[in-house]
Each structure stands twice: as structure tokens, then as C-alpha cells.
Amino acid sequence: MKKYSVFRFGLCFSLLFLSGCWDRKELNDRAIWLATGWDVAEKGEIEISGQIVIPANVQTQSGGGSGSASGQGFFTISAKGKNVSDAMQNMQTKLPREAFFGQRRVVFLGEEFAKRGLKGYFDANQRASDVSLRADLFVVKGGKAKDLLRLPNPLEKSPAVSALKEHKQSGGRGDTAYLKFLTAATRDGIRPSVPSMEISSSIEGEKGGKENSPNPKVVRLSGVTVFDRNLKMIGFLNTEENRDLLWVMGLLKKMTISTTHSKGGASINLTKIDCKIKPIFNQNNQVSFKVILKGEGALQESNSGMDMEYTENLKILNKKFEKIAEKQVQRTIEKVQKEYGQDIFGFGEAVHRKHPIRWKSLKDDWDQTFPKTNISVTAQIKIKRIGMDGPSVLFKESEIKK
């Protein structure tokens, strides 16, 4: 009996050292952030904005498993401060719940904030334990982050979700953009680049109206932002140049190449895309690069009289697509070399991986070497599927080239 008493006492005593849920926080006590905005404020301060879920306005559909909203499903809040922590402290005075960043999907940087530089501010962004690195990152071209956070999309209740989906549909970096930015910021062989967005209208060429108008203001991808080694924004590339950049980096998921000429044009939708960068050293230890672009996909459109069931016609069209890709990517690389001088493609990383010993003598002066480096581009494009028809149905039999 005494033996069992000692056992029970030992069991009860051990419970004192077991961890419990004494520090847990309920969802009702948290303000769940979907997106964060960073802007420049007066007197050298910064302004932090947040897009926060309104739980009462979010309902879960019983059949589909996706969320819908009755009324606006979010609200925007902002506050200014000397640094990030000061701004967040000032913002917390406006919130009845504790700010929670575990579900944050997107980070927006105002253009003026990006020009100021990010080195002195992003420490707090990754130091917090509840901040996920799986987030999208954008620079707001020609505007402020807090303005974009207040702009809903007609198809998505949250601007954060809208921006994330637009980036995914474009074949870009998606929710790895923030992580890739941090990675590039800590390496010598590549400089950071961040996708950019701008406020536009749903109808091209016309000024956007109110939210419920037939032509509301919308957020759209506008290209990519170039940063230097000090994490200061130095310029933009357009959407076409952004796709070229992603292709060379091996991050592009899909793209369409179109060719036009007097006898009709054609388009291919590439869904299997790759790129290889080959560093080549001469006898003087000077490096040059050969970029090999690869792409396979389906013929999307053919407005000519060519019958695509014939192999020779496919070869002719493949060559046209290859020349367009080569010329386009070569032009983008040379523009970055000439105007910005920053290796945002990762050519230095290619040398580091394949020739680590030689890279040691290059890395310190790579910002000066890259703009002068010779880089050639070749493309290998293959049409794998031609669709339902050989020639276009709009051409007569006598007009079809076989």
C-alpha cells in the first residue's frame, strides 16, 4: 500500500513540470493581418499600414469551402513612428485586439519608401517569431502602399488576396518573393529585385471610377523593381522585361510569345520553361556567359495559311519564336547592364556555383565587372501541341501552305 502511495505522489508531483496552455491566445483576442504597407512619413518617420480581417463580415460557404463576405471583409489601419516598433506601438492604440501577423500574405512598399532604402527597417520584419517568410512582396509604382491597401478588387474582397492571385496567374514568384528578396540581399552574386504594382483602371486608356462603376480602379502588375547592394530602389523594368528576367532566373512558370507579320501572326503558350547559364572563361580569366532559354508549349493562335500538321511548317514557326525570345531577352539584359549595372539575374551566382575558386577573385568587384561582361542568348522553343486544327479554318484550300 505504501508503495502505491509513493507512486501516486510521484505522478502528481511530475505534473508540476508539464507544459500547459497557460499562455495561449484565442482568435477573439487577435487582429489578423492579411497585408502590411510601408510608406515614408514626415520628419524622417515611417508609416505602417495594415489590412485586417473583419471576422463578423466573413462567412464560410457550406458547400465550397471558400470564403465569401457580406459587406466589406477587411479594414485598413495605419500609424506613424520613428521606426517600425514605434509605429506598431502607436497603431496598437487603435486596435482592441493584439496584432497577429501569422496569416499575413503580402507586403507592399511605397515607391518613396523603397527609394529611401530597406536596410534600416526590415530587421523587425523578420525578427518577430509569428511572421511567416512565405509572403509576396511588391513595390507600389508611383504611389503609396496605404492607398493600394484600401482598394478592393471586384472579384476579390481583399486587395491582398487580389495581388497574390494576380502575381500567381502571371507566372511570377508568388508567395516566395519576400524570401527570394532576403536571399538576394545577403549574397554577392545577385542583387535583389521585387515585383511592382500600380493602381490602374479596368478599361485600358480610361480613368478609373468608383468602386461600383463599370470601370473601377484596380491593382495590376506593372513589372519589377531593381535594387542595389544597399537595398535602395534604383529603377523599374516593365512587365515584358520582368518576364525576361524571371526566365533567365529560372523562376518563370508560363508565358506567351507572339509573332506578327504581313501574312498573319501566331502565338505559343509556354508552360514548360527552363534556362541554363554557362560561364565561360578565357585565358585572361575574363568571364562571359551563354544563356540558353528553353520552352515547350501549345500553339495558341495561328493566323496564317500554314498547315501545322506538317513538320517543316512547325520548324519554321519554332525558329520565329526562338528569334523573338532571343532578341527580347538579349535587349533586357543589355538594358539592365547599361542603365542599372546591377546583376539582378544571378550571373554571379552561376559563377559561384560552377567555379567557386575563380569567384573569389571576382566577387568584390562584380558590380563593376557585370556591366562590361559579354552575354549571349540562344533559345530552344518547341511546339508540342497544335490544338484541334492543322491550318486555320478561315483560309481556303488554295491559300493553305503545306
From TrEMBL:
Spore germination GerAC-like C-terminal domain span: 222-387
Segments forming domain Spore germination protein N-terminal: 23-199
PROSITE patterns, A to Z: PROKAR_LIPOPROTEIN
Residue span of region Disordered: 195-215
Keyword Lipoprotein: yes
Biological processes annotated in GO: spore germination
Keyword Transcription among UniProt keywords: no
Topology versus the membrane: Lipid-anchor
Subcellular location: Membrane
Keywords: Germination, Lipoprotein, Membrane, Palmitate, Signal
GO CC terms in record: membrane
UniProt similarity note: Belongs to the GerABKC lipoprotein family.
Record-linked PANTHER family: SPORE GERMINATION PROTEIN B3 (PTHR35789:SF1)
The name this protein goes by in its record: Ger(X)C family spore germination protein
Native source species: Neobacillus mesonae
